[in-house]
Specification:
4 helices; two-stranded parallel ribbon; 181 residues; binds coenzyme A; Thiol Ester Dehydrase, Chain A; 7 strands; globular
Length: 181
């Protein structure tokens, strides 16, 4: 039988930080990626976000992960043809089998190398076994102030997503309701 100190060590080993899952990709915007006014096509950006976020979720879960929902996406600025786009993804909260991932998108100007944030998104993944059944994920320990804010807000986003998916009754979304009280 494990003593309590052994259990503590075991639990610590199963806790990860957002930095542990940090994943960054950099890629060009080519003509085949654009819409009719030569800006990045929204669906192409979603696909790039899904890829980088699923790598981050997989690093955290150390299991197969599947995309369960897109909780938020903001295409705040157009991304012109020829842009050099950097996407950064980190796990922002882990629940039982699901985990939330924050993705930020930066456009680097060729002239002055200044990076401007152009988009952000929040995806939820579920870790599954090879038969597609949900399996447990390690817990997340946020470290920085922004990581702690994202961690707290993730519970509200989860409740909203589950209500919209018809998997949670609005009356049971207590954290979400508290926002309006
Ligand atoms: C995601 C999937 C595994 C969930 O399976 P399920 O049988 O609905 O599982 P459950 O209802 O037991 O939920 C499992 C977890 O997913 C979470 N979840 C399910 N739907 C969700 C949604 N819409 N938003 C947020 N979380 C969701 C649940 O809250 C639960 O999390 P928890 O264990 O951390 O509490 C299943 O729906 C699936 O395989 N979907 C297809 C995924 C896929 O192919 N994605 C690629 C894009 S096509």
């Amino acid at each position: 039988m494990l003593g309590s100190s052994m259990l503590t060590v075991k639990n610590k080993m199963h806790t990860k930080t957002p930095e542990n899952s940090k994943t960054t990709t950099t890629d060009l915007v080519l003509p085949s990626d654009t819409n009719s006014i030569n800006n990045l096509f929204g669906g192409e950006l979603l696909a790039r976000m899904d890829r980088v976020a699923s790598i981050a979720a997989g690093k955290h879960a150390e299991q197969i992960v599947v995309t369960a929902s897109i909780n938020h996406v903001a295409f705040s600025r157009p991304v012109p043809l020829g842009s050099v786009l950097t996407l950064e993804a980190k796990v922002s909260r882990a629940f039982t089998t699901s985990l939330e991932v924050f993705i930020e998108v930066w456009n680097e100007s060729r002239d002055n190398k200044i990076k401007t944030k152009v988009n952000e998104a929040i995806f939820t993944f579920v870790a599954v076994d090879k038969n597609g059944n949900p399996v447990k994920v390690p817990q997340l320990l946020p470290e920085t102030e922004i990581e702690k804010q994202r961690f707290d807000a993730a519970l509200r986003r989860r409740q909203l997503s589950l209500v919209l998916a018809g998997k949670l009754q609005a009356k049971d979304a207590t954290e979400l309701k508290a926002l309006f009280d």
